[in-house]
């Protein structure tokens, strides 16, 4: 059974970009998500600059997390986000490659889900400062199903390079 009530679900989505004006890519993706039928954005984190993970020979990323309320079930929300990525020019050349935009569903209520396309909660979110810091900024009491409070994992990612951008840096 999918954890969606008739009134909808609360979800968190991570956004990341390191190509083609990353700040603008994040802003555009948020605007495109806001236009989805059955979706209402309820919070947007600050932007954060972080070093690439995995394939490190690439530009730093700009990251954010949004909280939204949706009547879309997880597979439909994923399809909508993948469509936004595709229309933005996202290419999947290799794992951890540079990208115009990356949109990942982190949490969907307290649902745990796994199929060929989607795993919830996001399986590596607790290992990434660029997810945890913006998530906790907008939802300080966030809980990762099966793992516990998201704040428990901050110490373990403390060595990862991440900087919150000031408002004047966001505008440039």
Which key terms come to mind for this protein?
Alpha-Beta Plaits, 172 residues, 4 helices, 10 strands, 6-stranded antiparallel beta sheet, disordered C terminus, alpha+beta, single chain, two-stranded antiparallel ribbon
Can you describe this structure?
There is one protein chain. The protein has a single domain (9-164), classed as Alpha-Beta Plaits (2-Layer Sandwich), CATH 3.30.70. Helix content is 24%, strand content 27%. The strands form three sheets. Strands 1, 2, 3, 4, 5 and 10 form a six-stranded antiparallel sheet that branches. Strands 6-7 form a two-stranded antiparallel sheet. The N and C termini lie far apart (45 Å). Strand 6 and strand 7 form a beta hairpin. It has four helices and ten strands; from the N terminus they run βαβββαβββαβββα. With 172 residues, the protein is α+β, with helices and mostly antiparallel strands. Residues 168-172 have low confidence and may be disordered.
How many domains is the backbone divided into? Answer: 1
Number of strands: 10
Oligomerization state of this entry? single chain
Task: Return the average pLDDT rounded to an integer.
Answer: 90
CATH uppermost class: Alpha Beta
Low-confidence stretches: 168-172
Measured between the Cα atoms of the first and last residue, the distance is 45 Å
Number of helical stretches of at least 4 residues: 4
Name the CATH architecture: 2-Layer Sandwich
Name the CATH superfamily classification. 7,8-Dihydro-6-hydroxymethylpterin-pyrophosphokinase HPPK
Spatial extent as radius of gyration: 15 Å
Q: Element order, helices and strands?
A: EHEEEHEEEHEEEH
Helix content: 10-25%
Q: What coarse outline follows from CA principal-axis ratios?
A: globular
């Amino acid at each position: 059974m999918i954890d969606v009530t008739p009134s909808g679900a609360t979800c968190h989505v991570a956004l990341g970009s390191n190509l083609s004006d990353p700040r603008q890519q994040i802003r555009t993706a948020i605007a495109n998500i806001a236009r989805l039928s059955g979706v209402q954005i309820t919070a947007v984190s600050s932007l954060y600059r972080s070093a690439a993970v995995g394939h490190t020979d690439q530009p730093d990323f700009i990251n954010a997390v949004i909280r939204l309320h949706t009547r879309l079930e997880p597979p439909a929300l994923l399809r909508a986000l993948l469509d936004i990525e595709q229309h933005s020019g996202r290419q999947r050349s290799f794992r951890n490659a540079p990208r115009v935009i990356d949109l990942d569903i982190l949490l969907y209520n307290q649902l745990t889900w796994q199929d060929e396309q989607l795993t919830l909660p996001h399986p590596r979110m607790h290992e990434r400062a660029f997810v945890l810091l913006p998530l906790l900024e907008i939802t300080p009491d966030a809980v990762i199903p099966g793992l516990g409070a998201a704040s428990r994992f901050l110490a373990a990612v403390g060595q990862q390079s991440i900087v919150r951008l000031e408002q004047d840096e966001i505008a440039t």
